[in-house]
Write a structure and sequence with these properties.
Helix content: 25-40%
Number of domains: 1
Bound molecules: zinc ion
CATH class: Alpha Beta
CATH superfamily: Ribonuclease Z/Hydroxyacylglutathione hydrolase-like
Distance between the termini: 38 Å
Strand content: 15-25%
Shape: globular
Length: 241
């Protein structure tokens, strides 16, 4: 686990055949009000919990898990995480929260072929990803958590209920799978995805002042070049129609 800034910690995913999402812990340790952003792929909770504890963070201080979205590589080990911290609330954007509560797994798996493959490989049953959501986020919230302020943005396109978290003071953006390093963006062909919305979401993110980009996969960007997000939209514009 790596400290990005005071109150922002990064635990790298460990990809298999399927990628494992990165996890971020946000909140000042002295606040005892920390949040985990995303969980990761099935079987990937243990090493992340160890990494958190090795940095001296108390598991009991993690009050909630906030999902950037509910794809399998982000939510796969949520149940394992919550076994270790059963007190932690679950916060999800409302468009994906409701299906999650009803056991509708179309967003989780993204496509039928992937669902059968994963169910076989990981021994998952229908309804394995049914969760009660403690707080349904809409977008435009200002979260005062962990002694920090995070703005929630609803950024559909990669999935219908994707959110980004933005710290305006330190110019840190946690965009989930909407955008990555190397001018890459999240796929926009899965269930609930919409290339047109993806473009609009990217344009809204491009209006932000971002110094540090902490995406769901691949490298993190600690010195984001000026205009990086706008350049990314321009490179992908022709595909996002
Ligand atoms: Zn995703």
């Amino acid at each position: 686990m790596q400290k990005v800034l005071d109150g922002i910690y990064f635990i790298s995913g460990q990809d298999e055949m399927i990628p494992d999402a990165h996890v971020y812990i946000i909140g000042k340790p002295e606040s005892e009000d920390l949040s985990m952003i995303d969980a990761g792929l099935m079987g990937k909770a243990g090493y992340k919990i160890n990494a958190i504890q090795e940095l001296g963070i108390q598991l009991e201080d993690i009050q909630r898990v906030i999902m950037t979205h509910t794809h399998l590589d982000h939510i796969g080990c949520l149940a394992e995480m919550r076994e270790k911290m059963p007190w932690a609330e679950l916060w999800v954007q409302t468009v994906e929260a409701e299906p999650l509560e009803h056991g509708d797994e179309r967003t989780v798996y993204g496509m039928d072929m992937f669902k059968s493959m994963c169910q076989m490989q990981y021994g998952l049953k229908d309804g394995a990803f049914t969760f009660q959501v403690d707080q349904k986020l809409i977008g435009n919230e200002q979260l005062e958590i962990g002694g920090m302020i995070w703005e929630v943005m609803h950024v559909p396109g990669h999935s219908a209920g994707s959110i980004a978290l933005y710290d305006p003071e330190r110019k840190v953006l946690i965009p989930g799978d909407v955008v990555y390093a190397d001018y890459a963006i999240g796929r926009f062909d899965l269930y609930g995805a919409n290339p047109h919305h993806h473009r609009e979401s990217l344009l809204r993110l491009a209006d932000l002042d971002v110094d540090i980009l902490l995406p769901g996969h691949n490298q993190i960007l600690e010195r984001v070049p000026r205009g990086y997000l706008r350049e990314t939209v321009e490179r992908w514009e022709a595909y996002l129609v």
